[in-house]
Amino acid sequence: MLKTYYNCPISDEPVHEVLPRDGDFVEFFCPTCGQFRISNKSITSMRRRSRSEREAMLTDARRDAQGGDGIPLIRDSHSHARKTDDQR
Q: Where is the composition biased (Basic and acidic residues) (predicted)?
């Protein structure tokens, strides 16, 4: 069963949250971003980031999901990796 959630933490569009929550992440279905998971800690940190930074974190999570269950999981470590890449 889907529960309507506020807005996508990436695109800021209305999305659906899958219930129940499993572990330390929330799973979303966004018409723009697709299906992805995001850690609770990352949801909070997304508010401080630009849309391009949020999209880059989702891109990193998609790359990391290849070969796994296929559902990207955005973790706070994606923001640390992005900062390191940007500082080069």
A: 52-66, 75-88
Q: What angle do CA 7, 48, 12 make, to 5 degrees?
A: 20
Q: What does 30-72 look like in DSSP terms, one character per residue?
A: ETTTEEEEEEHHHHHHHTTS-HHHHHHHHHHHHHHHTTTTS--
Domain boundaries, the chain: 2-87
Query: pTM of this prediction?
Result: 0.75
73 pLDDT above the threshold of 80 = yes
**H or E segment to which residue 27 belongs:** strand 25-30
The sign of the CA dihedral 52, 43, 36, 24 is positive
